[in-house]
Design brief:
Blueprint lengths: L3 E2 L3 H4 L5 H8 L3 E3 L5 E3 L12 E3 L4 E2 L3 H4 L10 E3 L6 E2 L13 E3 L4 E4 L13 E3 L4 E5 L10 E3 L4 E5 L2 H6 L10 E3 L14 H8 L1
Parallel strand pairs: 1-3, 2-4, 3-5, 4-6, 6-8, 7-9, 8-10, 9-11, 10-12, 11-13, 13-14
Length: 203
């Protein structure tokens, strides 16, 4: 099959002329689905005017936190890097993408906890992290506009925050064997789990 390599933007638009620089800044949308893209996407962080970056179903193999300065995409409204080979923790710098409305990092190999500073993304409508290797307890997600939450098939643990259960269906959390519903008993500690509920979340 055809293999497309991502060419560093610095080479693709390396010119000292101001007109060339203006053209580079006017790249607002980059959408390349299932194009067999390989390698790093770090070069794309020079496209600081991007509003939409969608590269799903490729073969990008990147340790996200170390290799990608996501904070450079401060104007992004949509970031879709699903179905690649991204690994490592969700980077702290993602909290600077305050214009994001859709974040899709599903079907990768991301690990570590869901960072609580993801609550900085107050315009977020969709948060899709399903089919990764995320661990730890769920933070309390205080995202007022969030309509679609998908955290299925990770390694999340502990109790589901009751506030999330009131807003989203249980199907948003299935496939996490160590994640459970909070106990109905008011005397139970916050860290205890209802084993019967746990079975339904992990199914």
């Amino acid at each position: 099959g055809v293999v497309v390599l991502i060419i560093p933007a610095t080479k693709a638009v390396s010119s000292s002329s101001s007109s060339r620089r203006r053209r580079r800044r006017r790249v607002w949308k980059l959408s390349l689905k299932a194009m067999q893209l390989r390698g790093s996407i770090q070069a794309l962080t020079s496209l600081t005017e991007l509003r939409v970056l969608s590269l799903p179903e490729n073969q990008l193999d990147v340790e996200v936190e170390v290799e990608v300065e996501v904070g450079q995409w401060s104007r992004l409204g949509l970031l879709n890097l699903s179905s690649n080979h991204l690994w490592g923790p969700i980077p702290d710098a993602i909290s600077s993408l305050t214009r994001l409305r859709r974040l899709d990092l599903s079907r990768n190999a991301l690990n570590g906890p869901i960072p609580p500073h993801i609550n900085s993304l107050t315009r977020l409508l969709t948060l899709d992290l399903h089919h990764n290797a995320l661990t730890g307890p769920l933070p309390m997600l205080s995202l007022p506009l969030l309509k679609d939450l998908r955290l299925q098939y990770n390694n999340l643990s502990g109790q589901l925050p009751p506030q999330l259960l009131r807003r989203f269906p249980l199907s948003s959390f299935i496939g996490n064997p160590n994640l459970c519903l909070p106990s109905s008993s008011s005397s139970s500690s916050s860290s205890s789990c209802n084993s019967n509920a746990n079975a339904s979340v992990s199914s």
